[in-house]
Write a structure and sequence with these properties.
Largest sheet: none
Number of strands: 0
Mean pLDDT: 85
Distance between the termini: 35 Å
Structural class: mainly alpha
Strand content: under 5%
Low-confidence stretches: none
Radius of gyration: 30 Å
Order of helices and strands: HHHHHHHH
Shape: rod-shaped
Length: 200
């Protein structure tokens, strides 16, 4: 929608450093347009004073002046021809946006156990029998119980855990419920964690 006389931010050029606002960016653009280097220098120094006043809390940082001049260089797209009081070559790193991180798209059979437990299941398939495997089975079964309790709103069936553990380890791990003892769940803590997840 374009209504004559109304100026929307969405129709304006995108700000390079939005934290300084459009007025400061306009000042930088004005400084770039000045033909005389001395004028540009005075204008740049005035802009730095304004930027400095906008964030007084940064004065505690030892390199805050350097950062202001770096930001001025970024807002001018490194086109401002002045005598820079600081080396602004490092400002290019600030202006460079990091590459987006790849989101892991690994498919797992059930979400409530999470990818890390499925990595453990794969590890258990190849582990030789012994104390180390028994300890990992114990920890894994207890974590499965906690996960199932949180996802099932307070229900965590031991037979379901034993069945899932056997299923996801291709039958290599058979939990004997007659001899295996699960850790006692701290219900109050589990309910608090479940409540936090719901609020998010």
């Amino acid at each position: 929608m374009n209504i004559e006389g109304l100026d929307y931010n969405t129709q304006r050029e995108q700000l390079i450093l939005p934290e300084y606002g459009r007025e400061v960016q306009n000042m930088v653009d004005y400084a770039l347009s000045l033909p005389d280097k001395e004028e540009r220098q005075r204008c740049a120094e005035s802009i730095i004073v304004i930027m400095d006043r906008m964030f007084p809390q940064n004065h505690e940082n030892p390199d805050y002046k350097q950062k202001l001049w770096d930001h001025l260089a970024i807002m001018s797209n490194f086109q401002l021809d002045i005598d820079w009081p600081y080396d602004i070559s490092g400002a290019a790193k600030i202006a460079t946006k990091p590459e987006p991180l790849d989101y892991p798209m690994t498919q797992i059979p059930v979400r409530h156990y999470g990818k890390m437990l499925f990595d453990v299941f794969e590890h258990l398939k190849t582990m030789p029998a012994g104390e180390e495997r028994d300890e990992l089975v114990r920890q894994t079964a207890n974590q499965m119980k906690r996960d199932l309790y949180q996802w099932s709103h307070g229900s965590a069936d031991d037979e379901k855990i034993a069945s899932d553990l056997a299923r996801f380890t291709d039958g290599r791990i058979q939990l004997d419920l007659d001899t295996f003892t699960f850790e006692k769940l701290d219900m109050s803590q589990m309910q608090q964690q479940t409540g936090k997840k719901k609020r998010r």
